[in-house]
Every structure is written in structure tokens, then in C-alpha cells.
């Protein structure tokens, strides 16, 4: 499985934008880039995913490098509730194939200061 | 909102006892995952099913762990006999293949302590 590299931890100030980087230099052409986050004492929750183009949703934006070897999760205005571990994961969810799992790494622990 | 439901939420058991964790995936989802999380190892994929058939259980210790889907609304993870090193949070997740890059949805976890 292709691996991702993320910083162990990052800090942000409340109401400021946060850019969480992820390197995935061995990404394959069929790998989607997924981001999940895990709040304390909860299960991981989906944030966003993309393949080649930048993506936006109500939670965040995902900027994908042109060569797809890196990506950045952007939280436009961090809140205290955004303090969590953020996981960048490569995966392919294909019906009928043996692939389709998501392998989590260690993630980035984001702290948000008031 | 539809959600993945796991039971029990918390379980303390003695070493050697059988433990069964249950998961109700989101209605209509055809893929179910079992993950285990510890401080040391992080989130590990134990097994996953598609349309109730096991696709991959290579992450699961075979001698004591077993995972099944008796029907589309129930997935079980059983540990027999349990050991202290099995203490962890066990997450069930479900998803549906439709479109591309499908997301999966996690339950709140079963917090297991084996003493």
C-alpha cells in the first residue's frame, strides 16, 4: 500500500486558516486521497477526498499538487472544535476488487489555541 | 442521521473470557470494516467484508479472533480467549461502493479492557 507522510503535530490559532500537509510520493494512478479526522474519544470521521482536482466542501478544502505527490488539507477558519488528529490516507474503493481498504498512518495532531 | 452502531460501548473482562463485539452498519452499505486502535499501534485494519463475504482478514490474529457477518445488518468480532494485550478500542466502519473514492463511516467504538 502506498504510504503517506504527515507532520506529527501542528498548532494553530483560533479563527486562523490551517494548512495540513501530506506527502504521498508513491501514489498510484487509481489512489484517491482521503482525509479523516478523529476527535478525542470518538471514531474517525470523514473530512474530504479527491483524485486530481482541488475539492471544497463545508468542512474543508483539499489542494492536490499537479503531480499528485502531495496534498494539503485547508481549514479556512480553525475553531477549538477542530482540535483533532488528522489522517491523510490513500485508498481505492473498488467494487469486486480485493482493494478497497483504508490504511491509517499516525496522522497529524492539530492543537488550536484560543 | 444514519450511523454505525456498536455494542458494547465499554467492556471490562477477565483474561481468558470470550468477548463478542457487535456492529450494525448503515442501512444499504455493502462493506464493513473492523479496526483496532491502541496508543502504540494507532489504527490497524483487522478485517473487512463486502456483501457479507470476508475480503481480507490478514490483519487479524487468527488463533483467537474471528469476524463474521451473519446478515447484512450485523457484523461481529469475537475474541476467544481474550488476553490483556487485546485491550484497545475496536471500531466498526461501513461504506458503500457507488461512484468513486467512497467514504466510510465509523462507529463510536467498543472500548475493551482485559484484566
Give a brief rundown of this model.
Chain A has 114 residues and is mostly beta strands. Chain A has strands at 9-13, 18-23, 32-38, 45-50, 55-56, 61-64, 70-75, 84-91, 108-113. Helices cover 0% and strands 44% of the residues of chain A.
Describe the structure.
The complex is a heterodimer of chains A (114) and B (115). By secondary structure, chain A is mostly beta strands. Chain A is 0% helix and 44% strand. Chain A contains no helices and nine strands. Chain A has strands at 9-13, 18-23, 32-38, 45-50, 55-56, 61-64, 70-75, 84-91, 108-113. In chain A, the strands form two sheets. Chain A has a five-stranded mixed beta sheet, with no helix packed on it. In chain A, strands 2-7-6-5 form a four-stranded antiparallel beta sheet, with no helix packed on it. In chain B, 37% of the residues are buried. Chain B is globular. Chain B is mostly beta strands. In chain B, strands 2, 4, 5, 6, 9, 10 and 11 form a seven-stranded mixed beta sheet that branches. A four-stranded antiparallel beta sheet of chain B has the order 1-3-8-7, with no helix packed on it. At the A-B interface, strand 4 of A face strand 4, strand 5, strand 9 and strand 10 of B.
Structural class, from helix and strand content of chain A?
A: mainly beta
End-to-end Cα distance of chain A, whole Å, is: 38 Å
Class by alpha and beta content of chain B: mainly beta
Strand content of chain A: 35-45%
Tally of alpha and pi helices of chain B: 0
Oligomer: heterodimer
Low-confidence stretches of chain A are 94-98
Helix and strand string of chain B, N-terminal first? EEEEEEEEEEE
Describe the global form of chain B: globular
Let me know the largest β-sheet of chain A.
Answer: 5 strands, mixed
Strand order of the largest sheet of chain A: 1-9-8-3-4
- Radius of gyration of chain B, in Å, reads 14 Å
β content of chain B, as a range? Answer: over 45%
Spatial separation of the terminal alpha carbons of chain B: 36 Å
Radius of gyration of chain A: 14 Å
Number of helices of chain A: 0
Amino acid at each position: 500500500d502506498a504510504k503517506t507522510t504527515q507532520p506529527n503535530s501542528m498548532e494553530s490559532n483560533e479563527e486562523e486558516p490551517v494548512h495540513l500537509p501530506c506527502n504521498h510520493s508513491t501514489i498510484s494512478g487509481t489512489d484517491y486521497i482521503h482525509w479523516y479526522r478523529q476527535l478525542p474519544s470518538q471514531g474517525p470521521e470523514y473530512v474530504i477526498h479527491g483524485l486530481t482536482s482541488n475539492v471544497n466542501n463545508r468542512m474543508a478544502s483539499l489542494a492536490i499538487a499537479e503531480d499528485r505527490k502531495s496534498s494539503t488539507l485547508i481549514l479556512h477558519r480553525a475553531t477549538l472544535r477542530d482540535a483533532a488528529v488528522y489522517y491523510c490516507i490513500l485508498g481505492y474503493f473498488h467494487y469486486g476488487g480485493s482493494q478497497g481498504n483504508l490504511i491509517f498512518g499516525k496522522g497529524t495532531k492539530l492543537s488550536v489555541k484560543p | 442521521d444514519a450511523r454505525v452502531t456498536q455494542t458494547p460501548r465499554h467492556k471490562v473482562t477477565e483474561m481468558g473470557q470470550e468477548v463478542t463485539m457487535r456492529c450494525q452498519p448503515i442501512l444499504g452499505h455493502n462493506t464493513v470494516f473492523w479496526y483496532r486502535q491502541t496508543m502504540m499501534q494507532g489504527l490497524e485494519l483487522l478485517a473487512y467484508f463486502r456483501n457479507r463475504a470476508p475480503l481480507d482478514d490478514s490483519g487479524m490474529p487468527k488463533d483467537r479472533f474471528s469476524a463474521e457477518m451473519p446478515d447484512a445488518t450485523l457484523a461481529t468480532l469475537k475474541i476467544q480467549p481474550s488476553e490483556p494485550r487485546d485491550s484497545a478500542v475496536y471500531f466498526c466502519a461501513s461504506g458503500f461502493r457507488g461512484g468513486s473514492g467512497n467514504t466510510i463511516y465509523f462507529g463510536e467504538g467498543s472500548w475493551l479492557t482485559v484484566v
